[in-house]
Write a structure and sequence with these properties.
Layout (H helix, E strand, L loop, with lengths): L1 H23 L22 H7 L11 H8 L1 E9 L5 E11 L2 E12 L2 E9 L2 E2 L2 H13 L3
Antiparallel strand pairs: 1-2, 2-3, 3-4, 4-5
Helix pairs in contact: 3-4
Length: 145
């Protein structure tokens, strides 16, 4: 009886795991026509995310935004989605320290054509000013040194 249960569990695992991986695959870019794309695509960045993540700010030319996020945030994560204006929003989320306490941050970049702009910062679901956004980006740059 025990051998039969193990065989059934192995059969279920052999069927479910590939289905789960396929269901989770794909990037967040607008090209999602291939439902059965490579499961490893889930772990790669979309073209839009890469164009922001691999870029440097004029105020911090020595590091990319990806390096800044990795140096400053815990669990940095990047996604993208279409904006209501026709451009693309690239969103960076991760943990930061705010006034000495752990906090969740969301930074959004408006990507249009070959350029982008940092347009939004939320800390613990509270909208922040452009001044605070600029200061945070400066601290993120400093963390790369």
């Amino acid at each position: 009886m025990l051998i039969k249960k193990k065989r059934v569990m192995l059969m279920i695992s052999a069927v479910l795991i590939p289905l789960l991986l396929t269901g989770c695959s794909g990037s967040s870019s607008s090209d999602s026509s291939d439902v059965f794309s490579d499961p490893l695509d889930y772990f790669t960045d979309s073209v839009n995310v890469s164009s922001v993540k691999d870029a440097s700010l004029s105020s911090c030319p020595s590091a990319t935004l990806g390096e800044m996020a990795d140096a400053f945030m815990s669990d940095a994560s990047w996604t993208d989605f279409p904006s209501s204006t026709g451009s693309t929003i690239v969103e960076l989320t991760g943990g930061i320290s705010y006034d000495g306490y752990p906090a969740d941050a969301i930074i959004q970049f408006d990507l249009y054509g070959d350029s982008f702009e940092a347009v939004y910062l939320g800390i613990n679901d509270v909208d922040q000013s452009k001044l605070v956004l600029s200061a945070l980006l400066g601290k993120m740059c400093d963390a790369t040194y």
